[in-house]
């Protein structure tokens, strides 16, 4: 801990203005000096190549600021988090506090900084359940945890899987942490409703969580087409031999894009079965696709199945 | 060998022509003085992403297909900003409805890059051949998935930049490629420096853009697609999307694949990637692409590639540009190079579609090229030197940096 507590707000303010802000201040000063001059039209913010860009601070100077704030421990971090606003917040003033937080995350994520990484992750995770931050700011914190978080952040992130606004960010952060996160998704799925089920089902498939097979199979009969497809994809990615018949039947009966998508799921299932040393099961899938995809628009599926079976 | 496996049926030709005549304006080939092409040599095509580069990308398809002695008719166009005019016959907002059409053989993709990989893979799964705008992908793992899909479905993929075709006809480049491919150089002393022209400031993002209402004609959820959902701002859409990590990778990704496409062919780097990447840049913003000075990338054989933006900080001065020549070899080496056959001419997209052999800018080559850009951007974003394993396709010893190699997608989208 440094002898004097860092003045976090003052350090944050040392970050440079954007060139749009600089330009605005210059124009303001010019107008003040020439009050009778006609106002120039302001550039549209969406015009290609328009000003309003981020030039960034001097790297060494920024590094010193980040290090000083980190060395201030949890109190300084809390002070910083309290300053963070997202542009959608009514009291948003500048990008600076959020940017400094990101700088700290990058610095703490460097190898050999485990104590600081842990401190920052614990502080960020502890604030996800607190009042006083907007949803947008919490989303920002979660995205920073996606870069830096480990097992210590799992439960705090898992608590947001049922939040309509934060579910996506929380899912991505947990998937990035990857180890020991499946129970969070299984637990959330029991309570999830509507579209929130999609990222959760997809995550269970990406994690290849074999404990989820029964709930994924149940989702194959869901009313929502996207839920059915996501569950089918998840089972295929798991390489679940017990799903062969259901997935083939689903693909055979589908039409249009849904048939393309479902057939692709069957090919994925066959590839996973092959990887899992279940070649006879994979052969069953490939053989079925070879024998049933006989139309001219499905020649490539037949060829893919035949090619895959050559090695068996 | 079958000369032309990819033919459409007369029924498709007639259906497609009728649909095309209904709403898409097409000048008949004979009016343009082109030789007559039989209906069975006329492919059905679609353009997905009509803004910005869209028309140019489509014209590349037409030029390439016609150059191979065939013709292509645009039967469908798709864009997420057409909620007010889509008819689901020739104008669509959902690319999946385009891809399910049996009369479409080739697809031009000119959406923002965060959609390139998924639409390419979906198109190939639907049996279509693909010409996809650069940069090929938004992150490294997507490129591998596209290359795997091209292999799995036996489809043609060509990246929408063509510099390597000209480069491969230059005798000096052929010699360089032969030397590199021969393995005669124990260590490659070459240093290639690209100075300027990378539009770094032009394609940087806003860090303080207040959300705005989504225009009624824009399907924002579909536009965002696999990327994290963020509030709408016009700067995130319509060309300036290049300034946001969610959709592209700044001027480096916008311009880099053009520059690297001939270079990776010439220097024989179509099957590997740099192993060490060092940036000189201010700390990056987590959402908006920003300024950087230079990036030095080294391959395992010593070949060094440098991007020097000329737009921030001191210029790169660590090493000077240096090529290689036959003078770098001994007499025996020079004889071996003289005896090596020249590389096969690169096939255009049209020739590849016709012959069912890989195009010059195929998925594997395009993937390795765009990987250079992604590694450079990861180094900029992480602000430190990174090491990369080109076989495992992972960053070594830096977990934080590695988390930028394969980004989870927003459901229901996934690789």
If you had to describe this structure to a student in words, what would you say it looks like?
The complex is a heterodimer of chains A (312) and B (415). Chain A is mostly helical and 312 residues long. In chain A, 64% of the residues lie in helices and 0% in strands. Chain A has 17 helices and no strands. Chain A has helices at 8-13, 19-33, 59-71, 73-83, 96-109, 114-127, 135-148, 154-158, 167-177, 182-191, 197-206, 213-219, 225-238, 244-253, 256-275, 279-292, 299-310. The model of chain A is unreliable at 45-51 (pLDDT under 50). By secondary structure, chain B is an alpha/beta fold. In chain B, 33% of the residues lie in helices and 13% in strands. Chain B has a 6-stranded parallel beta sheet, sandwiched between helices. A 6-stranded mixed beta sheet of chain B has the order 7-10-9-8-11-12. In chain B, helix 4 runs parallel beside helix 5 (140-153). Chain B is globular. The model of chain B is unreliable at 1-35 (pLDDT under 50). Chains A and B meet through helix 3, helix 5, helix 7, helix 9 and helix 11 of A and helix 3 of B.
A few lines on this structure:
The complex is a heterodimer of chains A (312) and B (415). With 312 residues, chain A is mainly α.
Helix share, percent of chain B: 25-40%
- Strand-and-helix sequence of chain A, N→C? HHHHHHHHHHHHHHHHH
Runs of chain B with pLDDT <50, length 5+?
1-35
Task: Please give the order of strands in the largest beta sheet of chain B.
Answer: 3-2-1-4-5-6
Layout of strands and helices, then pairs:
The complex is a heterodimer of chains A (312) and B (415).
Chain A: H1 8-13, H2 19-33, H3 59-71, H4 73-83, H5 96-109, H6 114-127, H7 135-148, H8 154-158, H9 167-177, H10 182-191, H11 197-206, H12 213-219, H13 225-238, H14 244-253, H15 256-275, H16 279-292, H17 299-310
Helix pairs in contact in A: 3-5, 4-5, 4-6, 5-6, 5-7, 6-7, 7-9, 9-11, 10-11, 11-13, 12-13, 13-15, 14-15, 15-16, 16-17
Chain B: H1 10-23, E1 42-48, H2 54-67, E2 71-78, E3 91-92, H3 95-99, E4 106-109, H4 116-125, E5 129-132, H5 140-153, E6 157-159, H6 163-167, H7 171-182, E7 191-195, H8 220-224, H9 250-266, E8 276-280, E9 294-298, E10 304-308, H10 331-339, H11 349-355, H12 363-382, E11 386-389, E12 394-396, H13 399-402
Parallel strand pairs in B: 1-2, 1-4, 2-3, 4-5, 5-6, 7-10
Antiparallel strand pairs in B: 8-9, 8-11, 9-10, 11-12
Helix pairs in contact in B: 2-11, 4-5, 5-12, 9-12
């Amino acid at each position: 801990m440094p002898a004097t507590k860092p003045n976090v707000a003052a350090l944050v303010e040392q970050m440079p203005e954007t060139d749009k802000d600089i330009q605005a201040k210059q124009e303001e000063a010019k107008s003040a000096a020439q009050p009778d001059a006609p106002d120039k039209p302001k550039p549209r913010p969406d015009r290609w190549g328009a000003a309003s860009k981020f030039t960034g601070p001097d790297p060494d100077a920024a590094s010193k600021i980040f290090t000083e704030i980190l060395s201030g421990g949890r109190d300084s971090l809390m002070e910083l988090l309290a300053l963070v606003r997202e542009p959608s917040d009514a009291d948003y003033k500048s990008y600076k506090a959020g940017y400094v937080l990101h700088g700290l995350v990058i610095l703490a994520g460097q190898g050999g900084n485990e104590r600081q990484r842990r401190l920052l992750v614990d502080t960020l995770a502890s604030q996800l359940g607190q009042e006083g931050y907007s949803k947008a700011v919490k989303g920002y914190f979660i995205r920073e945890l996606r870069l830096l978080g480990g097992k210590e952040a799992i439960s705090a992130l898992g608590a947001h899987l049922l939040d309509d606004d934060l579910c996506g960010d929380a899912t991505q952060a947990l998937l990035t942490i990857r180890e020991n996160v499946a129970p969070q998704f299984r637990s959330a799925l029991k309570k999830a409703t509507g579209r929130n089920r999609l990222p959760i089902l997809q995550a269970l498939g990406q994690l290849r969580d074999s404990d989820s097979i029964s709930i994924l199979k149940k989702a194959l009969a869901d009313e929502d087409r996207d839920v059915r497809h996501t569950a089918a994809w998840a089972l295929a990615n798991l390489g679940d031999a017990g799903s062969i018949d259901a997935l083939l039947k689903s693909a055979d009966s589908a039409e249009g894009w849904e048939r393309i998508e479902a057939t692709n799921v069957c090919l994925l299932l066959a590839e996973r079965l092959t990887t899992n040393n279940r070649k006879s099961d994979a052969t069953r899938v490939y053989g079925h696709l070879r024998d049933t995809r006989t139309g001219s628009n499905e020649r490539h599926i037949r060829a893919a199945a035949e090619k895959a079976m050559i090695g068996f | 060998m079958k000369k032309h496996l990819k033919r459409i049926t007369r029924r498709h030709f007639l259906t497609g022509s009728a649909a095309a005549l209904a709403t898409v304006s097409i000048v008949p080939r004979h009016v343009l003085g082109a030789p007559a092409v039989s209906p069975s040599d006329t492919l059905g095509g679609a353009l997905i992403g009509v803004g910005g580069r869209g028309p140019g990308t489509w014209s590349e398809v037409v030029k390439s297909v016609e150059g191979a002695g065939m013709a292509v008719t645009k039967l469908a166009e798709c864009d997420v900003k057409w909620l007010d005019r889509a008819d689901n016959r020739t104008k669509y907002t959902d690319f999946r409805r385009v891809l399910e059409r049996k009369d479409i053989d080739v697809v031009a993709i000119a959406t923002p890059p965060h959609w390139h990989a998924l639409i390419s893979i979906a198109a190939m799964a639907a049996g279509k051949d693909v010409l996809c705008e650069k940069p090929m992908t938004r992150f490294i793992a997507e490129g591998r998935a596209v290359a795997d899909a091209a292999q799995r479905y036996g489809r043609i993929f060509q990246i929408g930049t063509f510099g390597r075709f000209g480069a491969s006809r230059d005798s000096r480049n052929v010699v360089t490629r032969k030397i590199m491919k021969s393995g005669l150089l124990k260590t490659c002393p070459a240093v290639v420096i690209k100075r300027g022209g990378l539009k770094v400031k032009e394609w940087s993002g806003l860090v303080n853009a207040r959300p705005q209402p989504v225009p009624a004609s824009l399907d924002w959820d579909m536009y965002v697609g696999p990327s994290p959902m963020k509030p709408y701002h016009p700067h995130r859409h319509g060309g300036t999307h290049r300034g946001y990590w969610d959709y592209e990778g700044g001027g480096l990704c916008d311009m880099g694949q053009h520059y690297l496409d001939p270079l990776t062919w010439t220097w024989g780097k179509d099957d590997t990637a740099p192993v060490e990447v060092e940036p000189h840049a201010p700390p990056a913003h987590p959402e908006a692409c920003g300024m950087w000075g230079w990036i030095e990338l080294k391959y395992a054989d010593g070949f060094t590639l440098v991007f020097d933006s000329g737009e921030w900080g001191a210029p790169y001065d660590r090493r000077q540009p240096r090529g290689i020549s036959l003078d770098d070899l001994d007499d025996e080496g020079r004889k071996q190079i003289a005896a090596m056959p020249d590389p096969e001419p690169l096939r255009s997209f049209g020739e590849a579609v016709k012959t069912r052999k890989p195009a010059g800018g195929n998925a594997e080559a395009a993937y390795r090229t765009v990987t250079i850009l992604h590694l450079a951007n990861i180094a900029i974003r992480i602000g430190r030197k990174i090491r990369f394993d080109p076989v495992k396709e992972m960053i070594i010893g830096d977990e934080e940096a590695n988390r930028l190699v394969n980004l989870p997608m927003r459901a229901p989208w996934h690789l």
